[in-house]
Amino acid sequence: MKKVKNNDRIITEGTTTIRKISRICDNCLVSGNNVISYETHVATVNGSDLIVLGYWSRTTSRHINKTAKALGLTIKYLSE
To answer: Which domain holds residue 57?
Structure first.
């Protein structure tokens, strides 16, 4: 897993990496496995996938896409 910015808080225990808080862009961050856009949980990191929890506005969709690209994740939708 790669860091997104220098202010990421990442803890590594053995072979497990836990993301505490990673700011992706303004109004978007990853807290644990949750992707938060503004103040709403919009997606969840599950292994190498980013599971999107519904349909979102254009701006929130950009946040989701930036997060997936920054973390090297494949976007999947909850309905798949």
So the answer is: 9-77
pLDDT in tens, the chain (80 residues): 443 444 444 444 444 444 556 777 888 888 889 999 998 999 999 999 999 999 999 999 999 999 999 889 999 998 75
Cβ-based neighbour number of residue 16 at 10 Å: 7
pTM: 0.71
The number of folded domains in the chain is: 1
Q: Is residue 1 part of a domain?
A: no
Q: Where are the alpha helices (DSSP H) in the chain?
A: 58-71
42 domain residue, yes or no: yes
